[in-house]
Amino acid sequence: MNTRKRKTPPQTPSAADYLIASRQCELMNLQYFLQMGKLVQTISNLVHGLQRERGASNVFLGSGGEKFAQERKAMVADSEQLATLFYQALSEVHGELTGHTVSSHLLNHIAAALHGLEALQSLREQVHNQALTAAEATDAYCSLIHNLITVVFEAADTVADPSIAGLLVAMVHLMNGKEYCGQERAAGSAGFSSGAFDSALTQRMMHLVEAQERCFDVFFGFADDESKGLWQALRAHEREQEIERFRQLGCSVGRYKTLDPELADSWFSLMTERMDALKEVEDAVEGSFHARCVERFAEARNSLAHQETLIASLDGQEQGPKPVLVLCETAGESGTSQAGETWSSEGVSQQFGRSIFDLVQEQSRRLQQMQDELQSAKEALEDRKTQEKAVLLLMESRGIDNDQAHRVLRKLAMDQGRKLPEVARALVSMADLLK
Amino acid sequence: MNTRKRKTPPQTPSAADYLIASRQCELMNLQYFLQMGKLVQTISNLVHGLQRERGASNVFLGSGGEKFAQERKAMVADSEQLATLFYQALSEVHGELTGHTVSSHLLNHIAAALHGLEALQSLREQVHNQALTAAEATDAYCSLIHNLITVVFEAADTVADPSIAGLLVAMVHLMNGKEYCGQERAAGSAGFSSGAFDSALTQRMMHLVEAQERCFDVFFGFADDESKGLWQALRAHEREQEIERFRQLGCSVGRYKTLDPELADSWFSLMTERMDALKEVEDAVEGSFHARCVERFAEARNSLAHQETLIASLDGQEQGPKPVLVLCETAGESGTSQAGETWSSEGVSQQFGRSIFDLVQEQSRRLQQMQDELQSAKEALEDRKTQEKAVLLLMESRGIDNDQAHRVLRKLAMDQGRKLPEVARALVSMADLLK
Fold this sequence. Notes:
2 copies of one chain form a homodimer.
Chain A: H1 15-62, H2 69-99, H3 104-118, H4 120-128, H5 134-156, H6 162-194, H7 199-222, H8 225-236, H9 238-253, H10 263-317, E1 326-327, E2 342-343, H11 350-398, H12 402-416, H13 420-434
Antiparallel strand pairs in A: 1-2
Helix pairs in contact in A: 1-2, 1-5, 1-6, 1-10, 1-11, 3-5, 5-6, 6-7, 6-10, 6-11, 8-10, 9-10, 10-11, 11-12, 11-13, 12-13
């Protein structure tokens, strides 16, 4: 097994040692994400459980304790079970997580998520005692779920393999979109059961629909074919038209007309079905992610073994002649990938030296290419951070709430005919200038 | 000692555990750079030794083996010694280097540098036997030195502490500028000893002067006060005017007039003195870097101990009441730093829960602020990569050499009235589009 860390340094470090170490490092990254995949899976399941629990708690509170009392209990028991699995996965990956020198953000986000889970028991008691409103309970669940999803976003930040990074980006945007869908379910339930939608609620519904669509767009841009197929089937399902009809109904009714409160149940069922269908797509992406990790890990291990054999044979051959002199292009400053294009063949054994050097060059090119390919996945992750930052800035500077800040940002983008991430970036960079 | 990695996961992971882990992770990062500092120091020294050796080899080859034969031998012995110290430092940091899952680039750059060092013996033999030209020898040394400096650039990529990152950016840009100065010495020596500067040589000199200035600007923007003072003293030294006079002389003489070849010795001495003075500034930055690492490490360790005490006392108090319920702002989606601004005080012990939650929030804010402050250092590093990429693109697409590509880039920047990194970024992003 080549993935073990070489804790004993070589007596005199050689290029071959570090070339191997570079490959081993890639393998470690893949192994890390094989393990992180399990954690992500338990987060995906726990989030789904909490979304169900949140929905049931809402109906329970909204009905004055009449509806969903039993269902809620069963869902709480499910969530407890899912939380235990999350704790287990976290324990399994604990050594890897805390062994990095660059994961303080990730660890602190885990702390925030765990803190939310620790407070869950007390939240449930308050729901049981009907000691808070449906809106208050929703907010508390939202915060916890947000913290859990943020853990996955942070985890995605350190993937080195582009195909794996893409699937993780697809996964986490789907999770995020599904969470907006859950928030839309809650907002719609509040409207339909009260029989009216005031303008704040209408705007919130519109915000949540748009936010979902943006997330799903990113998901679709990075997903594998199977998940895309499932997603398209979900979109083609008649339930989507039905939901759209409800949305129209809610948003057009205004605050004075009233709707039949019975609609609330149908809305809730439709959106619950939709979320379950989204979870199926999520599971498919998760499956592809895992399969890709296994596949890439096996490839990288074989490739490492191949390199080791190659280097061992070169080592044997090189006992005789000294390593080759490498002459690089004239200026000698433009990047390692330039070096070695000109070769001196004077007095040295060119063949073998060139081979070892070629391996280092090849690794340079591979890593560069991977980094280039990673770019778009990194940008998708960066876009989300920038948007959150822009929203926060607007909230602080204008004293507006989250929904309003999102609206301001969207309006800016529309008015200027630019994309939302672009506008968010401009806003953040201007704020830096004005500080 | 709190820096040990917690390999045994906690039974049930808690927010407090991960908050501590997040702080420990920062501490590990600082410890890593304490060790990396030693490696950087040995690289700085080795590069200086190789620059001296390159200079002596040049004069030796240029004089047909008449000059600097003994000096060169002494310098080779010095470099051998410095290489041994570099190998030692590398061995000491080997475990840390290979324990990361994100350092495959760094490891491969080390492999490239080691490969260059392995070929050094054969290069020296060729110099000794006068089996290559001064230009060929210069190129080989340039390539090796470039690879060594790139190791420092790559190492700087993973610093998490902004003040440390800034000093490392200052250090590596000074190293890079000094290397351009060394290349200018070689180019000037070639011109003065031949008695003439053709237009390619003149342009190369101008390129090297400009490239130095750019590096020194970045250095000055990030350096500590002591190093800045040394730098300003160096600039105010009369040697600078003298060098400027030589530059003017070389560049204005053209290819038909001839200069007194004796000027070559004065030029060589002047530039050698300048490089030794630059090395003193480099040592000062290195000293500040080390001091800052020690200081930040002690601070972080104290701060961690303080947190641990605080959390332990909170743990004790929290045996009784359950953790608090956290209610977040309405939409529950805008980032963890929002959560917890509204608090429910119903039926739960607010005081203690708030304290633990506050610690997590405070850590979030700290990390975010550090990341914001890191921005400019990261950008300086990114700028260099982008410029190398842009130069490479130009070389490939136009079939021109490194100097010419730099000139094209500079001309673009001047024509458009934009900064060089900006033009390089635009070029690279356009190339991505046109692929």
